[in-house]
Amino acid sequence: MSWISYAAKRTVVSIGVLLGASVLIFSIVRLVPGDAAQIILGQFAQEGALEALRERLGLDVPVWKQYFIWLGDVITMDWGNSLINDQSVQKLLLQRYPRSFQLALFGMVIALILAFPLGIFGAVNRNSPIDYLALFFSQIGIAIPSFVIGIFFILFFADYLSILPPSGYTPLLEDPVGNFQHAFLPALSLGVINAAVFTRYLRSEMLEELGKDYVQTARAFGHPPRRVVLKYVLRNAFLPTLTVIGIQFGYMIGGLVIIEEVFAYPGVGRLVLNSILERDYPVVQIGLLALTTTFIVVNLVVDLLYGLLDPKIRY
Fold first, then answer.
1. Which of 108, 133, 107, 101 is nearest to 242 (CA)?
2. How would residue 113 be classed by pLDDT, with cut points 50, 70 and 90?
């Protein structure tokens, strides 16, 4: 199978997954107990106001019809307005999404910077102090929830050392330094969690590759140890690790909901959380769909890269 055919097949599958996710997101919002209009306007609202809001939300037609109307609006970018402040959902999302994506990307960079040295040196120097450090880091990072790590970083860097702000956001174009300072702690919290996963997985893959015959053959032919590790072992160990990186980046996007709330970071995650608490259903649906779409697209890109780097995966 050619790479183009493989890419087309994976794209079709991803679109199907996205449609299934849209059904789930739409259904979850509709399955919330109680009348949505009554919850929004309160128990003392007049019946006329309730009927008007139900019509505005499209609740006066069958559920299956509501879904197709909503899906059509999503495709045509007609996302409606917030029920709380009457702002355009599209404007809210376009304002918040780049902030969250920047935070996730920053967290991924930190994760890779931490994970690759620990995973590589831990595997090459098995049962050494650096290997024990890598194992300890991976265990601690996986075991501790991200919000606990975030709170610890706030107490240490913002309260005790007073070198970084504990919360807030500064636009990148207005103040790049301030933007970096506000994004560093939440990104570090995300990065540490994912670095623990990457370290453990990369170390495991490296150890498996180091035990194979081709490594012994390369050493027997006199190849320098650094070349054997970096050119052969790391290259083969990186391919399966790439899949884990893509999956974890998707989980990182989902984990922004908690991290953004801890650091009062005004991204999509915090927007979705506040909208859930305020029963702002149009914002909740589009916000969740945006996070889900990011997860699916990132994994699609990783699948396509994997198919490009390893032709065997196409068959």
1. 108
2. very high
Q: Residue 204 has which token pair?
A: 């495991």
Residue 137's closest CA among 195, 183, 70, 73? 195
Kindly list the distances between the CA atom of residue 291 and the CA atoms of 24, 42, 270, 272, 281, in Å, as whole numbers in the listed order: 14, 30, 12, 10, 15
Q: State which amino acid sits at residue 217.
A: T
pLDDT of residue 270: 85
Output the pTM of the full model: 0.82
Residue 135 buriedness (CB in 10 A; 0-12 / 13-18 / 19+): middle
Cα–Cα distance measured from residue 274 to residue 280, given in angstroms and rounded to the nearest whole number: 8
Extended strands (E) in the chain? none
pLDDT class for 45, splitting at 50, 70, 90? low
Residue 110 has pLDDT above 90, yes or no: yes
Q: What is the DSSP letter of 128?
A: S
CB atoms within 10 A of CB 115: 28
Q: How far apart are CA 36 and CA 59, in angstroms?
A: 9
Cβ-based neighbours of 101, under 8 Å, separated by 6 or more: 253, 294
List CB contacts of 265: < 8 A, sequence separation 6 or more: 99, 103, 167, 168, 169, 182, 183, 186, 259
Q: What domains does the chain contain, in order, with CATH numbers?
A: 3-75 (no CATH), 95-307 (1.10.3720.10)
Residue 147 pLDDT: 83
**Contact, 110 vs 103, CB < 8 A?**
no
* Residues 266/167, Cβ–Cβ less than 8 Å: no
Q: Could you tell me how far CA 51 lies from the centroid of its own chain?
A: 38
Question: Residue 241 is encoded by which pair of tokens?
Answer: 């690790």
* Average pLDDT score over the chain: 83
pLDDT grade for 20, boundaries at 50, 70 and 90: very high
- Quick: pLDDT tens for 136-170: 988 888 888 888 888 999 999 988 888 888 888 88
